[in-house]
Amino acid sequence: MLLPYFDLWGPGVGVVVACSLYVLVLYFYDSYGIRKYPGPFTAKFSYAWIIWVGITGRRSQKIHDAHNRYGPIIRISPCEISFSDPAVYPVIHSFNSKAAKSSFYDSFGAIGLRNVFTTRSKTDHGQKRRLLQSLFTVQVAREFTPRTSSIMTRLIDKWESRYISSKTGFIWFDCAPWITLLAFDFIGEFIFGESFGMIESGLDSVTVPNDLQFPFVIGKATDVQHCQVQTMSLTHLVSMRERYNYPLGLLPKWWRPVGRRVLRKEVQAAKTFSAFVAYRFAQRLSTTAPHSQDTRDLVGRFLHKSKVQNEEFKPESLVADLITILVAGSDTTRNSLIAALHYLAKSQNAQHDLQAELDSHMISHVTNYTDIEGLPYLNACLNETLRLYSPVGIGLPRTVPHPGMSISGAWVAGGTTVGVPIYTVHRNEALWGEHPEEFRPGRWLQGDGAQGLDADALKAFSDGPMRCIGRHLALAQLRVMIASIFIRFDVALEDPENPLHIEEWFVRKATKCRIGLRRRRALSPDISAGIH
Ligand code: HEM
């Protein structure tokens, strides 16, 4: 009887000794010399803490709490330190490389191709970004607003027909699923020149090819009609993709093969999502030959630009970028708009001030973007939403160049991963004034003792050469979306005491937001007459 017992003891003790040695080596080896910095105990010798905070869905909040507890420079993994000082933000975002060790930039891409987001070195990234950047100018964003406006009208008509049954009471519903459809329709229109028709159908279904090898045979775009397809939920595909990319990005490189085995379903969904984007791309090409002058959408503008600049057109590379643009451009906007609705519904004073501003400009319907682009209170509400909510809240990891440098008074060795959490910067009292945790659009305006804030202090879109490429587009569409809703409706929260429920992966996601809508009665007769 004792024999099998002792048989298990041997390997068991071996595993414990090996793990202890591994921990001790990591602790004492300390190749980046960062053991001296305070932080959660397990982060000194393992990735356990950062993985744990990552999977709690509250990473930004927990790192913020750790800064409050341990100080402005903390160690959050054996190779990463986090700074809370906002002055460090521009310093580290001028570095040449996005970080590779235990980082999102290295785990992305079920299709094995780097895109503009996952390309890490500044030189390669610059090359990739050069052409794309010219397709995301302020001008492009402005020109696109009539189409955002018309998608908004579709959503508002749906809400009117479903939820506005009386002129007096509020009708309560969860706006989050609708705003998901809106964000997908918008990005479909922007990239492929036509929306996915989701608001119309009330469903988030898309057509996906059965053969996942298909995307990389884009040369056969003309065969797209003969492709076997099935219908799937785009929300499901996007969230499964993130459930693969995000946890994998938390793991050190050598653990990732294990992660891929565990997350088989998620890997499959990520591949299916890539196939879906390639399929839509092939459909789009089948209507317009490459290198034509059709610039109605991002694909068309890309083809046109690459022809003008004499760049070689690599379909796989463009599809890899479209995959990231589709996700980056829908998820962030969705969550920002839900947050704006939540905060403005909660702060009825702010909502009245916004409506008063819209009314005073006799805006009845957003037909002309220039009517709203410069409205101070609308912009203050938008900035305050992006500050307080900030769809990306983490410290985006960057690698310190060799041999190292002094950052915020601390010597940091070359190769160390560093980050400044956006969530924490956006709650810095010295920067934003009193009660940074409260939604107060007034802090962005001058007058009544307020100085007015500098929009550059806002890091929602990050900073430096790798900052968000879609920021002009995002700001323009959010202005149109917020104005369109508050011109038309009074908005209230079903339970004003409940905070917005957020689940954080790479992006902080608002999981639900129950609001009430009431058609506005306070509109002046002139404005009411303009509403149809
Ligand atoms: C409120 C809306 C948005 C927010 C808060 C936001 C935020 C961000 C942030 C923080 C980054 C930097 C990531 C990093 O350095 O690792 C980023 C990058 C990026 N964003 Fe956005 N984004 C928004 C909307 C959009 C839109 C509408 C698009 C496109 C349609 C877009 C496309 C991209 C792309 C392609 C990158 C990668 C840029 C690069 O690495 O050069 N984003 N975004």
Automatic annotation (TrEMBL):
<keyword id="KW-0472">Membrane</keyword>
<dbReference type="Pfam" id="PF00067">
    <property type="entry name" value="p450"/>
</dbReference>
<dbReference type="InterPro" id="IPR050121">
    <property type="entry name" value="Cytochrome_P450_monoxygenase"/>
</dbReference>
<dbReference type="GO" id="GO:0004497">
    <property type="term" value="F:monooxygenase activity"/>
</dbReference>
<dbReference type="InterPro" id="IPR036396">
    <property type="entry name" value="Cyt_P450_sf"/>
</dbReference>
<feature type="binding site" description="axial binding residue">
    <location>
        <position position="468"/>
    </location>
    <ligand>
        <name>heme</name>
    </ligand>
</feature>
<keyword id="KW-0812">Transmembrane</keyword>
<feature type="transmembrane region" description="Helical">
    <location>
        <begin position="12"/>
        <end position="29"/>
    </location>
</feature>
<keyword id="KW-0349">Heme</keyword>
<keyword id="KW-0408">Iron</keyword>
<dbReference type="GO" id="GO:0016705">
    <property type="term" value="F:oxidoreductase activity, acting on paired donors, with incorporation or reduction of molecular oxygen"/>
</dbReference>
<protein>
    <submittedName>
        <fullName>Cytochrome P450</fullName>
    </submittedName>
</protein>
<keyword id="KW-0479">Metal-binding</keyword>
<dbReference type="InterPro" id="IPR002401">
    <property type="entry name" value="Cyt_P450_E_grp-I"/>
</dbReference>
<dbReference type="GO" id="GO:0020037">
    <property type="term" value="F:heme binding"/>
</dbReference>
<keyword id="KW-1133">Transmembrane helix</keyword>
<keyword id="KW-0503">Monooxygenase</keyword>
<comment type="pathway">
    <text>Secondary metabolite biosynthesis.</text>
</comment>
<dbReference type="GO" id="GO:0005506">
    <property type="term" value="F:iron ion binding"/>
</dbReference>
<dbReference type="InterPro" id="IPR001128">
    <property type="entry name" value="Cyt_P450"/>
</dbReference>
<keyword id="KW-0560">Oxidoreductase</keyword>
<comment type="similarity">
    <text>Belongs to the cytochrome P450 family.</text>
</comment>
